[in-house]
Amino acid sequence: MNLTTLNPVMLIVIVGVVLAIGVALWMYMAKRQTQKLRSKFGPEYDKAIGEHRNRGHAESELQKREERVAKFKIHSLEAVDRSRYSEDWRREQSLFVDDPRAAVKHADTLVQEVMQRRGYPVGDFDQNATDLSVDHPGVVENYRFAHEIALRENQGPGSTEDLRKAMVSYRALFEDLLGQTAEKPEEVRK
């Protein structure tokens, strides 16, 4: 069949069908991408949507995070390192009773040390949290919450309860970074 011999109506129908298939395929791929990102990032996906107020921009940002983190040489910790860091954490938790402020400060430092040992670049907090959101989306909000409390602590003494919540939040991330199966972190933002 030669296209020049088709009547114009038939040509329009064929073009319309091809366009409809193309649009349907594009919509299907976009939906699959959304589902993939939503599944991978969990609550972080919703946070990105809220920040960008545009699904396309938010998804683009999440994809950029994935690409950035894919360039890192992230690796699991060896058993000896996990054991040493676990012991360090137990020491920090026991310090909390006598000096909660110092314990929270040390917990932050310990989390950053584990991040660096695993292969994450450590520096700017916001970039650290963004990087962590790729592989640890379920606990990165705990990291932000704990860091916020630690920052407030630097401006003046806060409550012991706030410091306890910071320690619980740091612990959830710490255990996830160590690759241990952590119990579901308690809800700290009541």
Would you give an account of this structure?
α3 crosses α6 (125-135) and α7 (140-155) packs antiparallel against α8 (160-178). The radius of gyration is 24 Å and the shape is elongated. Mean pLDDT is 83; it is low at 181-190. It folds into 2 domains: 3-70; 79-178, no CATH class. It has helices spanning 8-41, 43-52, 55-70, 79-98, 100-118, 125-135, 140-155, 160-178. Helix content is 76%, strand content 0%. The protein contains 8 helices and no strands. The termini are far apart. It is mostly helical and 190 residues long.
Keywords for this structure?
single chain, mainly alpha, 2 domains, elongated
Write the layout of secondary structure elements.
Blueprint: H1 8-41, H2 43-52, H3 55-70, H4 79-98, H5 100-118, H6 125-135, H7 140-155, H8 160-178
Provide the succession of SSEs: HHHHHHHH
Measured on Cα atoms, how large is the radius of gyration?
24 Å
Beta fraction of the residues? under 5%
The N- and C-terminal alpha carbons lie at a distance of 71 Å
Instruction: Count every helix, treating DSSP H or I runs of 4 or more residues as helices.
Output: 8
Whole-number count of domains = 2
Global shape = elongated
Give the oligomer, counting copies of the same chain as homo and different chains as hetero. single chain
Share of helix among residues?
over 70%
Task: Pick out the low-confidence regions.
Answer: 181-190
Mean pLDDT metric: 83
Class computed from helices, strands and strand pairing: mainly alpha
Number of strands: 0
What kind of sheet is the major sheet? none
